[in-house]
Amino acid sequence: MLRPFIAGNWKMNLTLKESRELAGSVRDGTEGITGVDVGVCPPSVFLEDVYSVLEGSSVILGAQNMHWEDKGAFTGEVSGDMIKEVGCTHVILGHSERRHVFGETDSMINSKLRTAFTKGIMPIFCLGERLEERESGSTFEVIERQLRAGLAGLRPEDVSRLTIAYEPVWAIGTGKNATSTQAQEVHGRIRALLKESYGEDVSASVRILYGGSVKPDNAVELLAQPDINGLLVGGASLKSDSFLEIISAAFEQVRSAV
Ligand code: PGA
Description:
This protein has twelve helices and eight strands. The chain has 258 residues and is α/β, with parallel strands linked by helices. Helix 5 (106-119) packs across helix 7 (139-151) and helix 7 (139-151) packs across helix 9 (180-198). The protein is globular, with a radius of gyration of 17 Å. It starts with a strand and ends with a helix.
């Protein structure tokens, strides 16, 4: 069993004070948790502060985005070196809001993934189909295109350290999660594609998280699926109670597996 990874994507929410408090609650609430990776991804302006709250704990700090270039005339962007300097070890790349609200293309996301690995930052690479794509039966096709284009040119040893997040766009922030069967079907497909391109060992080491309206009451069932290795949580990560409940679900699953 791969070590589950539960990551909170705070998106553009919270004040600085609320960010510090939430980070403190996650730090304290995960003290006895072993066998599960827990991470938070605050807005970039709060990263340094949140890092100072998390320092010394095992909670992972991730950014929500980064640019592929090191520096230059890219107004409004932050570089990999910058997020590293304020304590990030991880970064979310290719989130559907970046793709569909801000027009990020597969090739931009590929550049970001390459840069992240060059800098030693661990990407959480997001992909997922839109509602009309699911309804027209092209889910697998979309996933395959996003996966192949996103990973183009990456070394197999980088791919083996990757975290992928399958987030169907129609399930994000809608309260309508994919069923565990729907999610497993796509996760299994992603695993099979990885195996085809990179072999058994690489495909078996990639963690594939599910994201999209994850809540404490659907986390257990989602995590029970063989190819779901963790969760990327938006709305429910903004309250420590619900986020910690989801983390406990993963912890229970790890405990019951031994
Ligand atoms: P949600 O967001 O849990 O609020 O649906 C998930 C995400 O976008 O990462």
